TrEMBL record:
UniProt domain Polysaccharide export protein N-terminal: residue ranges: 36-123
Extent of the signal sequence: 1-38
Name of this protein: Exopolysaccharide production protein ExoF
Pfam family, one: Poly_export
Any coiled-coil regions, as ranges: 247-274
Domain AprE-like long alpha-helical hairpin: 181-361
Signal recorded as keyword: yes
Keywords: Coiled coil, Signal
């Protein structure tokens, strides 16, 4: 026997008879309800089922609960459900009663049971239905018993609302808002362009563009751009001043080194004269060799110092050239940056002009169509319904009304057509 067996409880004859009668009554009521609610319903893919299996053992007078088989199962894409020990069972197109009977037969046959287990199959969740067409929110919705076409349409928010000109009014308002944003952006770009042109022309003042005369808020934008120009100008002047100070310092250092080099050259000349005089005296035997050596050392020291001065002067001149180049690069980079910003601003202005023209065209079209929408408001809608339902494995379209019952898996199509009164 399978390991899922639960120990039963022995019952006396009288007690057993009462239990059997009660079980028959309960089973009769349950089967009546199940038959009334699911008699005509045929299972399909995505249906969720609740299966319960129990066995009455006549010989032992006990009830065995097949808990390993009981549980919730979903009808798969193949149209079957898979139960432990039992395996795959076809479910699609069958009723819950038919499926429950086969489960009992399968278990009895598989385990060679004397008494057939009693299986019950209930609907845990129906497969969804679908709304398509002129509804507010098309899509997938859960099924509930006693659902009609009208109730299903209400799940989707009802019929799609006719605008009667509201859509055109909404389009006009949206286009108007976008146009206002584009105009504000264009005004800001026009003043930015005026500021860039003033900076490129080395002018101290930004002139308000003629397109923005008497435009509200233009003076505030102009003041902002002027403040930005002053800030950028101060930053550039500080950078140029710093480079100018560095160049002045280096120039002073070069001049100082030049004077120091002249002094060292004079000292070298004097030292070499002393050395030559001592050489003459040494040749006559009137000078000591130690004095001659000291003068030679002095000449060498002065020459070394003069070489250091020349090296420092050369390095200072290199730093001066670098500072001059940095100053030139700063001015060139600044001019290039201004030119690039002006070019980008011109491109943005061109793009905004095109967008603004499109937005205004849409506004004009919305105004023209609003008159047509007013005429459409005098018309009524003819709404029709149909249900696409599978029959014999093939979809079939069925004409329906608001009170037509809906089944799980149905696709409800809602169409609407204008009809002149």
């Amino acid at each position: 026997m399978p390991s899922i067996k639960k120990p039963g409880r022995r019952c006396g004859p009288g007690m057993l008879l009462q239990f059997a009668r009660a079980a028959i009554c309960v089973a009769t009521v349950f089967c009546g309800v199940a038959t009334a609610s699911a008699e005509e319903y045929r299972l399909g893919v995505m249906d969720k089922l609740r299966v319960r299996v129990a066995e009455w053992q006549t010989a032992e007078g006990a009830v065995r609960d097949w808990g390993a088989v009981s549980g919730e199962y979903t009808v798969g894409s193949s149209g079957s459900i898979s139960l432990p020990f039992v395996g795959d069972l076809p479910a699609s197109g069958r009723t819950t009663t038919e499926l429950a009977e086969e489960i009992g037969v399968k278990i009895q046959t598989l385990f060679g049971l004397r008494d057939r287990p009693s299986a019950s199959v209930e609907m845990a969740q129906y497969r969804p239905l679908y709304l398509h067409g002129e509804v507010q929110t098309p899509g997938e919705y859960p099924f509930a018993p006693n659902l009609t076409v009208l109730k299903a349409v209400s799940l989707a928010g009802g019929l799609r609302r006719a605008d009667s000109g509201q859509r055109f009014a909404r389009d006009f308002i949206q286009s108007s808002g976008e146009s206002a944003v584009l105009v504000a952006e264009r005004n800001r770009l026009l003043i930015r362009r005026a500021r860039l042109r003033a900076e490129i022309g080395n002018r101290d003042e930004v002139t308000l563009p003629t397109e923005l005369k008497n435009v509200p808020g233009a003076n505030e934008l102009l003041a902002s751009e002027r403040a930005l120009m002053e800030s950028r100008d101060k930053r550039q002047k500080r950078q140029l001043a710093a480079l100018g100070d560095l160049k002045s310092l280096l120039q002073s250092e070069i001049e100082s080194l030049a004077k120091k080099a002249e002094t060292q050259a004079r000292q070298l000349e004097l030292a070499m004269q002393d050395r030559d005089n001592v050489d003459s005296l040494a040749d006559k035997g009137l000078a000591l060799a130690q004095r001659k050596l000291s003068l030679e050392q002095r000449v060498a020291d002065v020459q070394s110092s003069l070489l250091d001065i020349d090296t420092a002067s050369l390095k200072a001149k290199q730093e001066m050239n670098k500072a001059t180049q940095d100053e030139t690069n700063l001015r060139d980079d600044w001019d290039a940056q201004l030119a690039q910003e002006l070019q980008n601003t011109e491109a943005e202005l061109d793009a905004l002009t095109l967008k603004l023209g499109t937005s205004r065209d849409l506004m004009a079209e919305a105004l023209m169509q609003s008159a047509e929408a007013a005429q459409l408001a005098e018309q009524s809608l003819n709404v029709s319904y149909s249900i696409i339902r599978e029959k014999d494995g093939k979809p079939a379209e069925i004409a329906a009304s608001e009170n037509t019952p809906v089944l799980p898996g149905d696709v409800i199509k809602v169409t609407a057509a204008m009809a002149i009164r």
